[in-house]
């Protein structure tokens, strides 16, 4: 918490004597440096490419806190430590990295008048270092790359450029983008000022149009690796929906996707990163259409819409609004581009309309502000603020936000910028982008479903408190060093937006004690914002966004990135010294305990999740709790509108927007995408991006080849098979024969209850025990239900007698979901999704061999109990059980000597221990932990192995592993590389 006091500090940026901000110690301990409270250890960081076996990075003897995961220390060492590897100039400890950044911020704060005295500066330094080393928050990647180094101290990850309708401006666009990509950041811009290909040049010729100039920029971006790293440039290209070339723009990437398929079928390597993919255009940018309320209303009403000249503003062509909207959605269905940005909504929340409109965004669509501007980001780890009693510590969260916002604003005082126009706009408007990560994990730990009213209410109140605290702090800083330079001309508009935020906060409907406590503090905070802002103004035109938090999410050991739900319930965990484990997300046991489950129930559910990767049919887990464990991928994946509704809950409390992709299944239709785009506009989102599984050819699956190769092989196999069938069918005509049941046969009758509905099932078998018929009795004789079940029984019975395997029926009819559903009176099938689900599970238990049932995941109560006791569903001899208990599996882990110098780590002692080291055992529950499959190197690949569900993500350029979604891009948890976001 803070208070403002009188002082003699001098603000060198404004030339006025002001007051310093006195900072109260909240997290660190007086008289003790934060580092001295931590147990540190030395580790070796060695990264290899899983496909080639080549070592891509190696640094031995690095120093990290013992509670940092191997993955976090690996990513920080390889990405953020500065200096040439193998030299004395190379950083080797997290302390050096944090000190490099924190000391720079503290010195700049003193120089520019933010602190009342040196004592406050020291507290600021200790508090900031404490939060960073304890993984409570992280700055965006450019801060770690550049601050405190001889390089230009670029602190911003997000840039918005501008381009006008002139060749000088267009060529300058190419140059500015190149410098930004080289510095490790991304940029976006709107091309709508460039006249269309349907308009004339002053010389009388026809203009080329913006799409043609996109080709040059795309080729430039494809040759530049950001920051000298391995990931490609990140960029966003926006075009207004009323631009005459809008249809050509919409179709660009979809047409290229058709070209990729044609070249792939011709034998070219078109996988992402393949030798021939570079011949395809427009692949280095995300495309978005900027739509207006006028256009969206025309879509709703089915009326026409005018495309306007860039020079005169006159309508030069009229199109059918629904037809154009359908083309946009059709292109997104085909290749995930373009997304939509809702122009009127964006500018209705704009704090600086007197300076200019917001026309574009950064590559991931969360930063939306003035042209030629930048934004530096920082994200908090929400799970760190969850108390042991599973309540959210709103007061500590607010204190952390105050400190972080102060640091972020200080960074603008010393930051370097790629161009002078960007530097000038950023210094004049001081846009910040505080946000958070681990929302999905927080909600799960609190027993709240991601797609639930309770989950959305919690997210809304936390976001409201974060932005409200940020602006309250911004007003307080303004009272010390003055408001941002552009505030006076935009004061009324800025205050209006603050009132909109406050009104949105007042409309939040709290549902439980946890969100109510956060909401009460947020309400008080917004009152302070209005009061202090009116008196002092604000230091920052913008305060908050929700970024993808790809690499920095791993730095903080977050389970989930940004606003995303959990990716999967099973995780891939690296061990110290090598090796890996498959563990169940550690948030799950906490959530189960919060929900009231007993220890033995928690153990059984976690073991089930470890085996199956989902919670469906987990023993003892109530179906009403399934939604709490819904994930982005797998058997209980969230519905598309679940993503949209969560974004809508947070959006009214953000200065910017949200980097997030709405995932749709491969079976989704163009109409489904239209509905997502339309509902997003109605719910007040600023931007929406979608991704339909497997819509892009250049997204290789983790089978060692690529999807392109796999599809081509499948096509050839199908062609070859068809040729063989043509030859064989001439000689052999297959005619199924019916195997009738004997007149007298063995049968069994089972009574059952599903969700309160009673019924009877009679099953008859052949002499060899094979099922041959079933009869089902449900409902009153003569009722429609009874008739339907009679007909269904006859159809299944005839199918069985004609040779349809029972396994086929079981696989098709289990997990069908409809009412009645719920608890049953069968000890072997405690929960059922429907009557059909129960019937065929019961038949499988009665008539299928154990191996066949196990392949379908169907076990009896006795078998499940045996699995809990012995780890196996099959009967195990007593001697074998004793041997398993007496001799647990051993692995060798290299433990570096903590007292050895960094250079003396070649001859390290080895220790033979159990599955995990002592430090890791404190973090990892034994339940659900087991060696990871050899083929899996990340959680994405592990999910594919456990569930059989394909993860449609690219492979990492650096280490070759399957990446996973993070916001609007992808991130590799093996090495921290991203596909475009820092």
Describe what this molecule looks like in 3D.
The longest helix is centred in the middle third of the chain and has 29 residues, at about 455-480. The strands form 10 sheets. Strands 7, 8, 9, 10, 11, 14, 15, 16, 19 and 20 form a 10-stranded mixed sheet that branches. Strands 17-18-28 form a 3-stranded antiparallel sheet. Strands 21-22-23 form a 3-stranded antiparallel sheet. Among the domains are: about 1-155 and about 360-550, no CATH class; about 160-350, Alpha-Beta Barrel (Anaerobic Ribonucleotide-triphosphate Reductase Large Chain); about 745-870, no CATH class. Residues about 1-20, about 225-230, about 700-715, about 715-735 and about 875-925 have low confidence and may be disordered. By secondary structure, the chain is an alpha+beta fold. The chain starts with a strand and ends in an 11-residue tail after the last strand. It contains 30 helices and 30 strands. It comes from Nocardioides lentus.
Class of secondary structure makeup: alpha+beta
Beta-strand content estimate = 15-25%
Number of strands: 30
Radius of gyration: 30 Å
SS field, number of helical segments: 30
List low-confidence stretches: 1-18, 226-231, 699-715, 717-733, 876-926
């Amino acid at each position: 918490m803070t208070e403002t006091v009188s002082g003699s500090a001098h603000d060198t940026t404004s030339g006025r004597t002001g007051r310093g901000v006195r900072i109260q110690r909240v997290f660190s301990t007086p008289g003790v440096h934060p580092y001295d409270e931590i147990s540190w250890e030395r580790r070796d960081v060695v990264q290899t490419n899983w496909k080639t076996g080549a070592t891509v990075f190696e640094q031995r003897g690095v120093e990290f806190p013992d509670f940092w995961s191997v993955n976090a220390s690996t990513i920080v060492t390889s990405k953020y430590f500065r200096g040439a590897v193998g030299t004395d100039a190379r950083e080797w400890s997290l302390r050096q990295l944090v000190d490099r950044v924190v000391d720079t911020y503290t010195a700049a704060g003193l120089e520019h008048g933010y602190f009342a005295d040196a004592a406050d500066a020291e507290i600021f330094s200790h508090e900031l270092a404490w939060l960073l080393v304890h993984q409570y928050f992280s700055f965006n990647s450019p801060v770690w790359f550049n601050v405190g180094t001889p390089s230009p101290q670029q602190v911003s990850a997000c840039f918005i450029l501008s381009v006008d309708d002139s060749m000088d401006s267009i060529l300058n666009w190419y140059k500015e983008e190149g410098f930004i990509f080289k510095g490790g950041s991304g940029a976006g811009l709107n091309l709508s000022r460039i006249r269309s290909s349907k308009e004339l040049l002053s010389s009388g010729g026809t203009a080329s149009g913006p799409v043609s100039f996109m080709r040059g920029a795309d080729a430039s971006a494809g040759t530049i690796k950001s920051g000298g790293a391995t990931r490609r440039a990140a960029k966003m290209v926006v075009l207004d929906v009323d631009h005459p070339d809008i249809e050509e723009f919409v179709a660009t990437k979809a047409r290229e996707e058709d070209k990729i398929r044609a070249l792939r079928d011709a034998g070219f390597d078109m996988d992402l990163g393949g030798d021939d993919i570079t011949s395809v255009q427009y692949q280095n940018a995300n495309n978005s259409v900027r739509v207006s309320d006028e256009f969206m209303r025309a879509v709703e009403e089915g009326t026409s819409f005018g495309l306007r000249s860039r020079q005169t503003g006159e309508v030069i062509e009229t199109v059918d609004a629904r037809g154009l909207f359908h083309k946009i959605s059709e292109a997104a269905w085909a290749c995930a581009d373009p997304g939509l940005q809702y122009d009127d909504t964006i500018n209705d929340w704009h704090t600086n309309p007197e300076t200019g409109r917001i026309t574009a965004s950064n590559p991931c669509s969360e930063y939306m502000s003035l042209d030629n501007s930048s934004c530096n980001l920082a994200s908090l780890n929400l799970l760190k603020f969850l108390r042991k009693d599973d309540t959210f510590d709103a007061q500590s969260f607010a204190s952390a936000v105050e400190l972080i916002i102060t640091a972020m604003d200080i960074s603008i005082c010393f930051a370097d910028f790629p161009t002078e126009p960007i530097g000038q706009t950023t210094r004049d408007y001081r846009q910040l982008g505080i946000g958070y990560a681990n929302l999905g994990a927080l909600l799960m730990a609190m027993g709240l479903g991601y797609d639930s009213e309770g989950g959305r209410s919690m997210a809304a109140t936390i976001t409201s408190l974060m932005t409200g605290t940020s602006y309250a702090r911004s007003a307080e800083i303004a009272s010390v060093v003055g408001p941002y330079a552009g505030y006076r001309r935009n004061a009324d508009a800025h205050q209006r937006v603050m009132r909109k935020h406050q009104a949105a906060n007042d409309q939040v409907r709290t549902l439980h004690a946890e969100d109510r406590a956060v909401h009460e503090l947020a309400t008080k905070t917004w009152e302070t914002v209005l009061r202090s802002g009116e008196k002092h103004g604000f230091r920052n035109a913008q305060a908050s966004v929700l970024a993808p938090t790809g690499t920095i999410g791993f730095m903080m050991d977050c389970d989930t990135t940004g606003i995303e739900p959990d990716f999967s319930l099973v995780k891939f965990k690296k061990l110290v010294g090598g090796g890996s484990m498959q563990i169940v997300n550690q948030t799950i046991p906490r959530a189960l305990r919060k929900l009231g489950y007993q220890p033995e129930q928690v153990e059984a559910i976690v073991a089930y999740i470890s085996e199956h990767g989902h919670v469906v049919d987990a023993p003892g887990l109530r179906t009403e709790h399934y939604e709490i464990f819904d994930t982005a991928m797998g058997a209980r994946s969230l519905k598309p509108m679940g993503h949209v509704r969560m974004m809508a809950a947070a959006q009214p409390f953000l200065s910017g927007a949200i980097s997030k992709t709405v995932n749709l299944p491969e079976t989704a239709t163009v109409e489904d995408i239209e509905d997502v785009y339309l509902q997003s506009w109605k719910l007040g989102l600023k931007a929406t991006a979608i991704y339909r599984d497997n819509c892009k050819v250049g997204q290789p699956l983790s089978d060692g080849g690529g999807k392109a190769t796999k599809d081509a092989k499948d096509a050839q196999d199908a062609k070859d098979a068809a040729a063989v069938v043509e030859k064989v069918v001439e000689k052999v005509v297959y005619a199924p024969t019916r195997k009738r049941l004997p007149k007298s046969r063995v049968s069994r009758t089972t009574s059952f209850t599903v969700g309160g509905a009673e019924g009877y099932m009679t099953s008859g078998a052949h002499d060899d025990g094979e099922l041959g018929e079933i009869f089902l009795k449900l409902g009153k004789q003569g009722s429609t239900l009874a008739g339907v079940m009679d007909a269904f029984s006859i159809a299944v019975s005839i199918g069985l007698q004609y040779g349809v395997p029972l396994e086929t029926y079981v696989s098709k009819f289990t997990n069908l979901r409809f009412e009645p559903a719920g608890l049953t009176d069968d000890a072997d099938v405690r929960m059922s999704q429907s009557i059909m689900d129960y019937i065929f599970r019961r038949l499988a238990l009665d008539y299928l061999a154990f191996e066949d049932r196990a392949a379908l995941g169907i076990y009896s109560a006795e078998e499940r109990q045996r699995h809990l006791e012995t780890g196996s569903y099959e009967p195990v001899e007593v001697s074998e059980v004793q041997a398993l208990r007496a001799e647990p599996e051993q692995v060798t882990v290299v433990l570096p000597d903590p007292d050895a110098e960094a250079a003396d780590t070649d001859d390290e002692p080895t220790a033979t221990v159990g599955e995990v080291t002592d430090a890791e055992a404190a973090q990892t529950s034994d339940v659900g932990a087991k060696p990871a499959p050899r083929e899996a190197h990340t959680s994405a690949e592990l999910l594919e192995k456990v569930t059989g569900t394909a993860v449609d993500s690219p492979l990492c350029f650096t280490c070759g592993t399957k990446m996973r979604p993070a916001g609007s891009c992808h991130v590799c948890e093996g090495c921290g590389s991203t596909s475009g976001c820092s």
